[in-house]
Design goal:
Layout: E1 5-15, H1 21-29, E2 34-44, E3 48-57, H2 62-72, E4 75-84
Antiparallel strand pairs: 1-3, 1-4, 2-3
Helix pairs in contact: 1-2
Length: 96
Amino acid sequence: MSAPIRRLALDVDKVIDRPEMVELARALADVPGVSVINITVNEIDIETVGTIVTVEGEDIDTDALFAAIEKAGAVLHSIDEVVAGDRIIDHVPRRR
């Protein structure tokens, strides 16, 4: 049995008017295993809005999540963080 995926941080772009942020959040919240969604706008240009989507849950269905992003009309650019296992641990920045 593989370790459950508990958190993902995703770089997701959408066009300015579609999908609406609330619509996108609701679509992703309906994915099996998802408990919490946070969408933060990090960049806006003439036609697109860049967002960071943070998803947490007990055992996130990643295939369904990625399909829900596309079905809503947004585009997944990268997976920037993955937390898997029995519990969530937060990133601790390294000091040099």
